[in-house]
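Exercise: predict the fold of this chain.
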Amino acid sequence: MSTARRYRHTYDEYLKLGAESPLKLEFSDGEIFAMAGGTPEHGALAMQLVVLVAPLLPAGYRTFSSDVKVRVVVTDLGTYPDLSVVCGPIERAEDDRNAITNPRFLFEITSPSTEEYDRGDKLSQYKQLASLEAVYLISHRRKEITVVRREPSGFTEKVFRGGEQAPLLGASVDVDALYSVLQDLG
């Protein structure tokens, strides 16, 4: 029988380590993880998201890149979604003034190493954000956007594939247009 115990960090320890680290770090359930570096495909999809999403947003909405941390205080998560959208003034975490707590939309591009977490535990934690309307999970494997939307009865999940449009604020994100940036990357 193993007597090894896992050390649980505090959020303050995470902030101190993050200030000294050249890596982007995520905090979840007392653990600190180095976030995976992006591939050219991931970077291209992230930039194309901004190009497609930003023009759909009405006045008062703002987009934030993966450089802005989202804090889910009730689950003790600190993470960097690929794209966050806030409506109105941003609200900052009391324990981390560089983290926002009121995203309306979150976009995550999955990767082989993060897909299970993005679609599982991280999504579950995102759902605890009172301001959240939807999470868009962008597949790294195929032309596919999974939209997890808050409805009065709870969260629903719908998959949109090539040739389809994923809804966003009365408009839509064209799945083919999003993935078109991958054509020349080989």
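Check your answer against the key: The chain has a mean pLDDT of 91.
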